[in-house]
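QA checklist item 7 of 12: single-chain prediction sanity check.
[x] sequence parsed
[x] length recorded as 414
[x] structure emitted
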Amino acid sequence: MRQSELFTKSERAFPKDEVSLNAKLLTRAGYIRKLSAGIYAYLPLGLRVIQNIARVIREEMDAVGGQELFLSALVPKKYLEATGRADLEVGFEVRGKGDERANFILGWSHEDVLTALASKFVESYKDLPFAAYQIQTKFRNEARPQSGLLRGREFLMKDLYSFHASEDDLYRYYDEVKRAYERIFSRLGLTTVYTLAAGGDFTINNTHEFQVVADVGEDTIFVCEACGYAENAEISKLENGDKCPKCEGKVKSARAIEVGNIFPLGTRYSEPLGLLYTGEDGKKKPVVMGSYGIGIGRVMGTITEIMSDEKGLVWPETVAPFRVHLLELGGASAEKLYNDLQKANVTVLYDDRDISAGEKLNDADLLGIPWRAVVSPKTGDKVELKKRSEKEAHMIEAGVFLERMSRGEKRENI
């Protein structure tokens, strides 16, 4: 893509109405724009990042047998009334102009409606297990939407739901999803801590969170320095310096950002919504369920918080909007190199704008694309190549550069 054709532009200063680093950097670089507290528009660069995060998630969800679907954002209130969730303060009610009462709730989670749908197709134990997921916008009446993409009223989420004939089979799949999540976050460049957390009113046991240690995190977790066992402070009886209950190693507290969670739901939704199956013994039984969430926008915000530097964003290659940022400086033309990169299926942002070299270089650092390639009168028939996460640039033959860039992970935006 030619940067001269990109309708968004970077800004010289951080927005004055943002507190969090992720919102400041992403807004200044032209990835997102705040429309209201906790509500953001994803601009072309930001959408490409979101799409690449979603691509990784889709690949791993498909690998554990997840079937993608897309449920309505408008959830008929009757489904949440059946499970006792219609009046929770987290929801936004929707009432048509001529309606006397709200008949819909903007979907903040979809256990209820998907359970009702599954009841139309599940009859026997032979129909189980199965898992379905979606990537969709959620709406929550968040009281403190002040952390950019980390805490929003409208946000993009992957929610997976699994359906089983027994708790044993649920926990078998639960562990399978846990491993899939570990692969997802590793591919996205995040180190997560698998953390025991509160069960709440809608689960049969404790849940588990995937936490990223970060000073800006709103959660406090206690982590064993020896074996990695962790508990959320909300349920933990541990304190700094205590012995780990698993291995007697030393426990240390840390601030952290929750980027994903998994919940054993049991029959909490299947019983009130009539999701039953006929077992091998001929008896009707409620289906056992689990749910598994990842906040996609939150992942984007977390990457920004922990991987940026004083110059701007530093994207991992798996999520970056482009693999290469190609800059032409001093009147030199990078047109041929741009065309060659495109022919090699390398995603490239080509800075062909008529502005100063300093502005282009500063923008490249701010946007955080993994590789910066400079063509100028000084480079001649070579390319000055620099990795965003490194300090030194290197001169490289154009052909070698093309071959090196095309060796990277093959990916397409969804």
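[x] summary fact logged: The longest helix spans residues 167-187.
[ ] second reviewer sign-off
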